[in-house]
Automatic annotation (TrEMBL), chain A:
PANTHER family: CYTOCHROME B_B6 PROTEIN-RELATED, HEME EXPORTER PROTEIN C
Membrane-spanning segments: 14-35, 95-116, 128-148, 155-175, 190-214, 257-275, 287-305, 317-338
Membrane topology: Multi-pass membrane protein
Key word Membrane present: yes
Organism: Nesterenkonia sandarakina
One Pfam family hit: Cytochrom_C_asm
A cellular component term, taken from the record's GO annotations: plasma membrane
MF terms in GO: heme binding
Highest taxon, organism lineage: Bacteria
Protein name (database record): Cytochrome c-type biogenesis protein CcsB
Every Cytochrome c assembly protein domain range: 126-342
Alphabetic keyword roster: Cytochrome c-type biogenesis, Membrane, Transmembrane, Transmembrane helix
From TrEMBL, chain B:
Protein name per UniProt: Cytochrome c biogenesis protein
Top-level taxon in the UniProt lineage: Bacteria
TM spans (from-to): 58-75, 111-129, 213-234, 486-504
Broad class of where this protein is predominantly found: membrane
Membrane topology: Multi-pass membrane protein
Biased composition (Basic and acidic residues): 1-18
Disordered: region residues: 1-33
Record's keyword terms, sorted: Cytochrome c-type biogenesis, Membrane, Transmembrane, Transmembrane helix
UniProt xrefs under InterPro entries: Cyt_c_bgen_Ccs1/CcsB/ResB, ResB-like_domain
A GO-annotated cellular component: membrane
Native organism: Nesterenkonia sandarakina
Length: 349, 560
């Protein structure tokens, strides 16, 4: 077995810390952007008002050509600050933009740290709790950035980066583990597939968790708004820069569907194949297997809830949140406190 | 959110999925949700069936299944560790018995867990069958008839084509030709198309529903294969010391768990013998020094009674397949070779003693029973330490998993070992309560400490014990499950069905043509998605772009 490159391993740990600090900075700036929402809204409203005034003089030139449908021009309501499809509307949010730039920087440092760890140990960098968390955090941040290139999800920044920072802190403070070779049971090509799919699924579920929480809050605001309460002074202004609850729900659903497929193939199917190869049975109701099954069933329930009368909207969102709660439990509590075959936490005794 | 939302996705075909009825403009308004139960047994049964196969019930059962699975992770389960269950019940008198009665230690074979998943699967089958029938009808019949008012569909549009007879610059096709063109375009976009008198009906994405059905049918397949597996499978365990052989026959097993319909004749005739065993430990790391890195068992296998012997490697992630049965390396340890002589000088025990490693440095429990010894039966309990080191106060501990300084540390006892009354006993446990102690740290005689090659004479002329050497042993699991492949295949088809049903889009499109009083051709089209479709607006734009490319479209008249 090839020796471990200790120097590279140390660089990995250093860059993990650096990435953590950069993420913290990004998180803080996203928070500042959130707090300054009312200022942003005032500016956007002023811009919209000016635009509308200009448009009124232009309207005699006819309908915009790219308008599908019957060719009638679709007048956008002036109070619409966000697009339901989360497209960029050109809203200037300097703090959020710097935060995004910092996130890019953080992901770069983080990628180096994770890759260096893998190269140092000459294996995949997700074989214990520390590595699993740091890799998951990287995927969460990277997926968030990926979505940002196509959709304006800056409103999600505080939540996404908050979770990333939490994961990084939990990994480096809660489960610090020096780099090492892995025990024989983990030396299988399946670790690359089984665990990476779990990481992908969990990263998606992390993002949808944030969206579903936001959906619930947004829904409350929409209700009070419908009841005629003014949100000008009360309530959270940043919610006006977030899409509607329905839009959040739809997007969370689309990501959850992908996450569910990953979860089916990763933890469930490839997990069973690997379990058969190592332990001689594909399913044995080991604690980890129980919770993998529970999570799968909860998310399956979520997908069905979206098709059941009276279960869409908030209830579906709650199911998704409960599913994520089970994932946290499966990760944090089951690994540490429940004895089972999956005791690979690598924690010092 | 309680109101009906357009384009809401309906994944499974449960009965109250608002599905077609709500999305279909022809039956807008829908039917009453639940019929009042009719009187009489038949009516009640029908009502119960409707309830069971409703989406809401299925959802409840699904969530209930998740909740019911949880206790299995909280309480020890007999399928995994019956010893832990016995200990738990002993430690929690009262609660233990109650929970045992409620099958909390056999959750996954309990009545209540089985009831939930069986009801769930009945509900599922009750949904699949009518839905498959309906899907078959839709596949084999033409796309649905054209709605009267296309502009009421979620996505629609209209194009007025130019006509030179009406004084336009270009001459567009007449209504008949436009209809054929539209049909061709829809066909190219992979719609199934039917051309009618003045309209085209089209539908695509039938595979979405096929995938949905495939997913649910596959789940039934998985369940059936799991059940078949538990009937016809067998599994067992065997400990194999270096140079020993195992022949796959019932008598050879240490533990054996047959399926309900297991037949001894189905056991594959093969043998495995352990030639050598090698352990590799981490010798470089400062933080993980001594961690196990690799276990390799060199074995000789033989298929059938007179098959060719083959040398093979058995490793942790590398099981052997012997005629359908699989052999797994699940454990290993040290087997010190010991000879016990009794007070008469006769050999009462001789051979390797299987010790049970307790930790990463192979601190191993050793129990030796010599019931043939006379005048008194002899028993020994203690530890085997691969690399023994004095931890101060005379207490030795193992500091390394490899054989650096192997030592046996034993207490000895004499008396009736309790083996003669025919009751089964655990080989790894010696009940010392009714025995007299000969050697122990508490006694003047002290404990027995032996290195390889050494012999210790027991006090009171009871005999002697010698430590002759150390052998390796491996623990192997033998599994045979003929339905295992079936489970995998159905799991994969389920995954395929899931992908189809989640990511394909089922859409209907209609195009109508008419000739305006001015002599121009007016093309109207409408789109309807069945199920969740976030891209139907894109489809509208793409379709319109293709129409505009095909025909000279007249600029829309300005709204006054």
């Amino acid at each position: 077995m090839q020796s471990i490159n200790m120097e590279l391993a140390q660089y990995s740990e250093l860059f993990m810390l650096i990435a953590g600090f950069i993420y913290t900075g990004a998180f803080m700036l996203f928070a500042v952007d959130m707090i300054r929402s009312s200022a942003t809204i005032r500016r956007v409203e002023a811009e919209l008002a000016a635009e509308n005034a200009a448009e009124r003089t232009l309207v005699s030139y006819g309908a915009p050509a790219d308008n599908p449908g019957t060719g009638e021009p679709e007048a956008a309501p002036a109070e619409e600050l966000v697009d339901e499809e989360m497209a960029y509307l050109g809203t200037r949010r300097p703090f959020a933009n710097v935060a995004v730039a910092l996130t890019v920087l953080g992901v770069a440092a983080h990628t180096f740290a994770v890759a260096a760890r893998g190269i140092a140990a000459n294996r995949v960098p997700w074989a214990n709790m520390y590595e699993f968390l740091t890799t998951s955090a990287l995927v969460v941040a990277a997926v968030y950035l990926l979505v940002l290139t196509r959709k304006d999800v800056r409103f999600l920044g505080t939540f996404a980066l908050g979770l990333v920072v939490t994961m990084m802190a939990a990994a480096t403070m809660g489960f610090p583990t020096p780099v090492a070779h892995v025990q024989p049971a983990l030396q299988s090509p399946w670790i690359a597939i089984h665990v990476s799919l779990a990481v992908l699924a969990i990263s998606l579920f992390t993002l949808t968790f944030a969206m579903n929480v936001l959906q619930l809050i947004q829904h409350r605001r929409e209700l009070s708004q419908a009841a005629g309460e003014t949100t000008r002074r009360s309530g959270w202004q940043f919610l006006r820069l977030a899409p509607s609850a329905t839009s959040l729900e739809n997007w969370a659903y689309r990501m959850n569907a992908v996450g569910f497929v990953f979860w089916t193939l990763g933890p469930l199917i490839t997990g069973a194949i690997w379990a058969e190869e190592t332990w001689g049975r594909y399913w044995g109701w080991d604690v980890k297997e129980v919770w993998t099954f529970v999570i799968w069933v909860v998310y399956a329930g979520y997908l069905h809830a979206r098709a059941t009368r009276g279960w869409t909207g908030n209830r579906a969102a709650w199911l998704s949140i409960i599913g994520y709660g089970c994932i946290i439990f499966n990760y944090a509590v089951v690994n540490i406190y429940f004895p089972g075959l999956h005791s690979y936490a690598g924690l010092p005794e | 959110m309680a109101e009906k939302r357009e384009n809401t996705y309906m994944p499974a075909g449960h009965r109250d999925a608002p599905e077609a009825a709500e999305n279909d403009p022809r039956t807008a308004g829908g039917k009453p949700e639940v019929a009042t139960p009719a009187l009489g047994v038949k009516g009640m049964l029908r009502w119960a069936w409707t309830q069971l196969t409703s989406m809401r019930t299925a959802l409840m059962l699904l969530l209930l299944l998740a909740v019911a699975a949880v206790p299995g992770s909280i309480f020890p389960q007999r399928v995994q560790d019956s010893f832990a269950v016995a200990t738990w019940i002993e430690d929690n008198p009262g609660a233990g018995e109650v929970l045992d009665f409620l099958q909390f230690f056999d959750v996954y074979s309990s009545i209540w867990f089985s009831a939930i998943y069986l009801l769930l699967f009945i509900s599922l089958i009750g949904c699949i069958l009518p839905r498959a029938k309906k899907h078959w009808q839709q596949i084999t019949s033409a796309p649905p008839r054209t709605p009267r008012r296309l502009e009421r569909l979620p996505e629609s549009g209209a194009l007025e084509l130019q006509s030179s007879s009406a004084g336009d610059a270009q001459d567009g096709p007449d209504a008949e030709t436009a209809l054929q063109d539209a049909a061709a375009i829809l066909k190219a976009r992979r719609y199934r198309v039917e051309v009618r008198e003045t309209s085209v009906g089209a539908e695509r994405g039938y595979l979405k529903e096929t995938g949905n059905l495939l997913f649910h049918i596959s789940l039934v397949g998985v369940l059936i294969c799991v059940a078949l597996g538990s009937m016809f499978s067998y599994r067992g365990q065997k400990i194999l010391v270096e140079d020993e052989s195992f022949v796959n026959a019932l008598v050879a097993y240490d533990n054996f768990y047959p399926g309900a319909y297991f037949n001894e004749d189905q056991m594959q005739p093969f043998s495995v013998s352990l030639d050598a065993f090698e352990r590799v430990f981490d010798r470089e790391s400062t933080t993980h020094f001594g961690q196990a890195l690799d276990f390799t068992a060199d074995v000789t296998t033989r298929l059938g009674a007179d098959g060719e012997p083959q040398t093979e490697e058995l490793k942790v992630n590398q099981p052997l397949t012997m005629d359908g049965a699989r052999v797994f390396l699940v454990g290993n340890g040290y087997a010190p070779e010991v000879t016990v002589r009794d007070g008469d000088g006769e050999v009462a025990f001789s051979g390797p003693v299987i010790t049970r490693p307790d930790d990463g440095v192979y601190t191993s429990m050793a129990v030796i029973k010599a019931p043939d010894a006379s005048p008194e039966q002899l028993g020994f309990v203690g530890l085997f330490l691969p690399t023994s080191q004095d931890a101060g106060d005379g207490l030795a501990v193992s500091v390394d998993p490899e054989l650096g300084n192997p030592e046996l540390q034993l207490n000895s006892y004499y008396g009736d070992l309790g083996l003669d009354d025919g009751l089964a006993q655990n080989v790894y446990v010696l009940d010392t309560e009714s025995l007299e102690t000969l050697n122990s740290r508490e006694l003047d005689a002290g404990g027995i400490v032996l290195s390889p090659g050494e012999t210790y004479d027991l006090p009171e002329g009871m005999g002697s014990i010698s430590f002759d050497g150390v052998k390796d042993y491996i623990a192997i699991d033998i599994h045979y499950n003929p339905a295992q492949q079936g489970v995998l295949i159905f799991a994969l088809t389920a995954l395929g069905g899931l992908v189809l049903s989640l990511f394909l889009r089922r859409r209907r499109a209609w195009v109508t043509v008419e000739t305006t009083p001015a002599g121009r051709t007016l093309v109207r089209y409408g789109l309807l998605s069945r199920g969740e479709d976030f891209k139907i607006r894109d489809e509208n734009i793409a379709l319109r772009t293709q129409f505009e490319k095909k025909w000279p479209v007249r600029a829309p008249e300005k709204e006054s």
